[in-house]
Recover the amino acids of this structure.
């Protein structure tokens, strides 16, 4: 069997030995949203380190665990702390948790992150719905022998962020009175922030926000047919667009500041994306 798939199934079995919960939706929490789990009805918690073979995050401020619980009526699995490529993991490991949440039953995936703004119209604290992405600066997680059990070798990416889910996110923001930006997310490897010319390059390529996660996760999820939505919190403007050096602290602080609005939007989107009659 494909070694990547074998590892994934091992993790799946390890989770299922302890957890019978069946999520409808999966949520990945970015910087600032880390304590979102405290506002939901948690049924089960599973530390990444207790899952056999699971990659464990090393970033300060990122908790490493799955929460299983309910947002209103919706059964969700939440990743509190994601795995980043810059930590040194293979791309297979970076997307393993996403694939795992898909195998556990999640059909909808909501990806969140903190990102640097590239669009001159953005200000720190803005929320941006991701409409498309540029992932070519990191290896595709689909490189290597294709896992036929998950999806096709040559996978269509024409609508990676689901159009209906985009309408749901737009509608939820409008009804909550949240001003929502929209744009293209560019993933770079990190962990260093960009130089001013790298920021300029990303803008010329059509990017509106830049970050170090998310796009590779969306590719893996799209490969296995999940419905994907994405929201970035613009924690800072890209390097060279503001007059002070960038720091992780700044990213975290703005994430914390935007958190109440971000959380309200995420909750409303989850409630709307899985209507009650479908449960
Ligand atoms: N660049 C890359 N990743 C980021 C940034 C940034 O400016 N802000 C938050 N994550």
């Amino acid at each position: 069997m494909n070694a990547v798939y074998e590892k994934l199934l091992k993790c799946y079995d390890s989770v299922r030995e302890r957890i019978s919960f069946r999520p409808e939706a999966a949520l990945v929490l970015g910087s600032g949203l880390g304590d979102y789990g405290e506002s939901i009805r948690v049924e089960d918690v599973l530390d990444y380190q207790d899952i056999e073979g699971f990659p464990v995050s090393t970033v300060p401020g990122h908790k490493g665990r799955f929460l299983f619980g309910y947002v209103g009526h919706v059964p969700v699995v939440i990743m509190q702390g994601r795995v980043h490529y810059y930590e040194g993991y293979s791309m297979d490991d970076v997307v393993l948790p996403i694939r795992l949440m898909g195998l556990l039953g999640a059909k909808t995936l909501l990806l969140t992150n903190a990102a640097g703004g590239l669009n001159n119209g953005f200000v720190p604290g803005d929320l941006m719905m991701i409409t498309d992405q540029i992932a070519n600066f990191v290896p595709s997680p689909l490189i290597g022998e294709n896992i036929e059990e998950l999806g096709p070798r040559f996978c269509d990416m024409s609508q990676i962020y689901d159009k209906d889910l985009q309408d749901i996110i737009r509608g939820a923001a409008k009804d909550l009175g949240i001003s929502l930006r929209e744009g293209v997310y560019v993933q770079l490897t990190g962990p260093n922030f960009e130089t001013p010319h790298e920021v300029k390059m990303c803008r010329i390529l059509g990017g509106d926000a830049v970050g170090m996660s998310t796009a590779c996760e969306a590719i893996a999820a799209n490969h296995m047919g999940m419905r994907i939505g994405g929201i970035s919190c613009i924690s800072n403007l890209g390097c060279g667009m503001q007059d002070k050096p960038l720091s992780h602290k700044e990213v975290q602080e703005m994430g914390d500041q935007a958190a109440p609005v971000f959380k309200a939007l995420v909750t409303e989107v989850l409630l709307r994306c899985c209507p009650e009659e479908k449960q």
